[in-house]
């Protein structure tokens, strides 16, 4: 019998999560500690100034609980304000796309309700990596080179994240100071003190919308995950503003025998028609969960994003499925002066069409791509799973669950198996080169695009399966720099 397990996309984060379990923490403590490390060592994927979503199945509870750690748009954010700055559509990056960071408040709420450690203890390792430095991986080096052109528009960002080679040491002492302040001052230390002032000043300096008041009034929300059947399982996804219902729509259609493309098209069209901040417009669940419902509209293309997903379980029976992101790679591209934090560009998902359900409005949460997932069998948690991938996450989740359930693969095999994805144009099918029959399909169909095997654009998926008390099987995606760490 083992005491716990952690799977993340970076081995340093997995090791820190495992150490927290060894030190007497539970799965929630381990997940938050691992996530904090990811905010340091995977800056192209996530940030302390990003958003966080989680599903937690507490030990001995009859069902899981969800946490929506999504930040809102600024109180000054309006369609007219964006248009007056010369934009006909939402820009992809920059100050107008910055929304309130949700991560730190979510960390605090998770620990407050379910953890045994305080924020100071769980962010200590992350702070040390930021202060002392860490060796960057080939994936981060590739991302830095690819983004150098546009990161160079922000001198503070470029000074911190210039092009670098794999194996070089990257330090971020300002971020270490921020993490230390979070450890000492908690949620208020981030949202109502000098850190908040620095974020607001950085946005104001660049003519953006987020104010100190927006930061001071931010709150996460506890929710009931949406349950639905898949084979002999009950799967749980988060409700709006996340695209969890889109993932549910895809899986219920696949279970009903609907072809993959048709299931994808229906789920994405429903998402683009209905999902936004439920405080502004409620989303009906019925069209998503009815496999016979075929929406008339077509899905809207979205740009790809970068995200981290992790999962953890402990000997007490707690299970965590957690996902966190800065939205696109390196987020807005803006590092708030004196903080070392990349600000997220989650606002890029808003629409400037005033008839669209997800139109930009003040203090609104956009339709959110982040979707952790969990599955139960016979009333008990059976699996936690998820993947980075932004717009592609419902497709990647579907393939992962099909691998685990329909193909009966081990979690390590399920996350490593070649993947495909229908791209946002709705026509092109991207396939990893080792996907079954990929070469033949690419020769016969001009809409099939071959990609290198184990390419990170197909997500970093991780999963754990629970066989009983203290009995877990887990897998970390070989497309990432991650690992599975078991604690005995």
Quick summary:
By secondary structure, the chain is an alpha+beta fold.
Blueprint (SSEs and pairs):
Layout: E1 4-8, H1 11-22, H2 27-41, E2 51-57, E3 65-69, H3 79-84, H4 103-114, H5 119-122, H6 124-132, E4 134-135, H7 138-151, H8 155-160, E5 169-170, H9 173-191, H10 194-205, H11 212-216, E6 221-223, E7 226-230, E8 233-237, H12 244-255, H13 260-274, H14 286-289, E9 306-314, E10 319-327, E11 373-377, E12 380-387, H15 393-405, H16 411-416, E13 420-422, E14 429-432, H17 438-444, E15 448-451, E16 461-468, E17 471-476, E18 483-487
Parallel strand pairs: 14-15
Antiparallel strand pairs: 1-9, 1-18, 2-3, 2-10, 3-6, 4-5, 7-8, 8-11, 9-10, 11-12, 12-16, 13-14, 16-17
Mean pLDDT: 95
What count of helical segments does DSSP give?
17
Percent helix: 25-40%
Q: Structural class, from helix and strand content?
A: alpha+beta
Main-sheet strand order equals: 6-3-2-10-9-1-18
Q: Care to count the β-strands?
A: 18
């Amino acid at each position: 019998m083992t005491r716990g397990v952690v799977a993340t996309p970076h081995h340093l984060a997995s090791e820190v999560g495992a150490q927290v379990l060894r030190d007497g923490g539970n799965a929630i403590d381990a997940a938050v500690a691992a996530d904090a490390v990811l905010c340091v060592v995977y800056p192209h994927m996530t940030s302390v100034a990003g958003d966080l979503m989680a599903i937690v199945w507490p030990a001995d509870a009859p069902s899981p609980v969800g946490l929506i750690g999504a930040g809102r748009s600024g109180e000054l954010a309006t369609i007219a304000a964006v248009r007056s700055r010369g934009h006909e559509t939402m820009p992809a990056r920059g100050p107008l796309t910055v929304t309130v960071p949700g991560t730190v408040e979510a960390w605090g709420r998770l620990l407050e309700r379910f953890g045994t450690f305080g924020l100071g203890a769980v962010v200590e390792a992350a702070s040390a990596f930021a202060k002392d430095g860490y060796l960057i991986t080939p994936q981060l080096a590739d991302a830095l080179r690819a983004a150098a052109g546009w990161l160079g528009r922000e001198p503070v960002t470029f000074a911190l994240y210039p092009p670098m080679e794999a194996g070089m040491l990257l330090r971020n002492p300002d971020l270490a100071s921020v993490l230390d302040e979070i450890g000492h001052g908690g949620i208020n230390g981030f949202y109502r003190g000098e850190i908040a002032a620095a974020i607001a000043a950085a946005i104001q300096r660049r003519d953006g919308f987020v104010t100190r008041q927006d930061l001071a009034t931010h709150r996460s929300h506890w929710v009931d995950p949406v349950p639905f059947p898949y084979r002999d399982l009950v799967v749980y996804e988060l409700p709006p503003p996340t695209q969890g219902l889109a993932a549910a729509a895809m899986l219920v259609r696949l279970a009903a025998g609907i072809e993959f493309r048709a299931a994808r098209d229906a789920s994405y069209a429903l998402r683009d028609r209905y999902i936004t901040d439920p405080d502004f417009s409620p989303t009906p669940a019925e069209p998503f969960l009815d496999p016979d419902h075929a929406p008339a509209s077509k899905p809207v293309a979205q740009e790809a994003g970068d995200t981290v997903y992790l999962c953890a379980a402990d000997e007490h029976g707690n299970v965590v499925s957690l996902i966190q992101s800065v939205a696109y790679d390196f987020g807005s591209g803006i590092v708030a002066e004196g903080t070392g934090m990349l600000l997220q560009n989650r606002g890029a998902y808003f629409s400037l069409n005033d008839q669209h359900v997800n139109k930009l409005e003040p203090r609104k949460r956009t339709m959110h791509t982040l979707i952790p997932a969990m599955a139960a069998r016979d009333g008990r948690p059976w699996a936690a799973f998820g993947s980075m991938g932004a717009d592609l996450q419902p497709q990647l989740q579907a393939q992962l669950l099909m691998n685990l359930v329909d193909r009966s693969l081990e979690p390590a095999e399920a996350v490593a198996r070649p993947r495909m994805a229908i791209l946002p144009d709705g026509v092109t099918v991207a396939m990893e080169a080792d996907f079954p029959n990929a070469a033949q399909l690419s020769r016969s169909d001009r809409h099939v695009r071959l990609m290198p095997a184990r390419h990170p654009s197909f997500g970093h998926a991780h999963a754990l399966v629970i066989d009983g008390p203290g009995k877990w099987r887990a897998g970390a995606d070989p497309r990432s720099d991650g690992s599975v760490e078991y604690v005995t």
